[in-house]
Write a structure and sequence with these properties.
mainly alpha; two-stranded antiparallel sheet; two-stranded antiparallel ribbon; 12 helices; 60% helix; binds heme C
């Protein structure tokens, strides 16, 4: 019996370890969004930001307005008066009026529907993405994104965040890495092993310094301020991502609550079954 228990325990630990390992191994370049899906205030603020800053280009066509009332807790009058720019009834899907052909001409690509984006990209990716726009005069809208290179989307939250640029240190390290990369290619072509090793060392050192810079939040700086400070902007983005995460799975809250109940029920059932087993075997031993 004890041996069987040990085997079971080992299996459970293995599965737990594997799940944790898989979660921990997601992209190291993203920052944790730390969203709280049961925080209704946060969901409401996110819904408002979405309707004001994102809906013009991105529909949420697999979600209906009434999901804003049920799950997010926005009073129905407020949804009708303030949030419904396109639909007529609360049972309508959240679409927008942007003709796809025009969008293609303006942006080179039709802005995708975002109902399921949180499932595709994950909350941390979205959070980091919305914080990674920086000034780049080579791009059509004057901005680029360090997480989504050469993105076709303008930085629509710039009035809030301000103008973000890469710090001098970041620019310097990146050009060092680029130069070392070219150096390695040339050294390989010429068969110059010493030069290749030297460039690889430079690249390694610069990459580590760059990672440290990102970790210390010194990769970007704000060149001209927006209407929010850094902390406030983070909160707005976190709420927005929380809302997008809700949109991708409105039953998540119910599902999680139900899961806990089911596990408690199974534990109770286990206790009762165990007592019953003892009762059955009492006279045999
Ligand atoms: C002016 C139009 C416009 C607005 C407003 C806009 N976007 Fe975009 N967005 C785009 C375009 C165009 C793309 C496609 C970019 C590409 O693929 O290069 C895009 C792409 C994205 C993507 C990446 C999708 C993918 O491929 O994974 C996300 C996420 C996103 N937008 C979120 C938002 C959010 C959140 C807002 C509101 C704060 C917003 N967008 C507002 C035009 C817009």
């Amino acid at each position: 019996m004890a041996k069987l228990l040990k085997t079971k325990l080992a299996v459970v630990l293995c599965i737990a370890g594997l799940t944790f390992g898989l979660q921990a191994s997601t992209d190291g370049d993203t920052e944790s969004a730390n969203i709280r899906s049961d925080n209704k205030m946060s969901l409401q603020s996110g819904a408002k930001t979405y309707m004001n800053y994102c809906l013009a280009c991105h529909s949420l066509q697999y979600m209906r307005y009434d999901k804003l009332v049920d799950g997010v807790g926005v009073p129905v009058e407020l949804v009708e008066q303030n949030l419904m720019f396109t639909g007529d009834k609360t049972s309508d899907h959240i679409t927008n009026n942007m003709p796809a052909a025009d969008a293609k001409e303006w942006f080179g690509i039709v802005p995708p529907d975002l109902t399921l984006i949180s499932r595709v990209r994950g909350a941390d990716w979205l959070y980091t993405y919305l914080k990674s726009f920086y000034a780049d005069s080579n791009r059509p809208f004057g901005v680029n994104n360090s997480l989504f290179k050469d993105v076709g989307m303008p930085h629509v939250l710039a009035p809030l965040q301000g103008k973000q640029v890469k710090t001098n240190n970041a620019v310097e390290l990146e050009s060092k890495i680029e130069a070392a990369d070219i150096g390695i290619a040339i050294a390989n072509r010429d068969g110059d092993a010493a030069a290749a090793t030297k460039n690889k060392a430079i690249m390694h050192e610069a990459s580590e310094a760059l990672a440290q810079l990102k970790h210390d939040h010194q990769y970007f700086e704000i060149a001209s301020a927006g209407s929010l400070n850094g902390e406030e902007y983070n909160t707005v983005v976190r709420d927005l991502v929380n809302f997008l995460d809700y949109a991708s799975e409105p039953v998540k809250l119910e599902r999680e609550a139900l899961g806990i109940k089911v596990i408690l029920f199974l534990l109770a059932l286990f206790g009762i079954t165990y007592l019953l087993k003892k009762e059955y075997w009492r006279d045999i031993h």
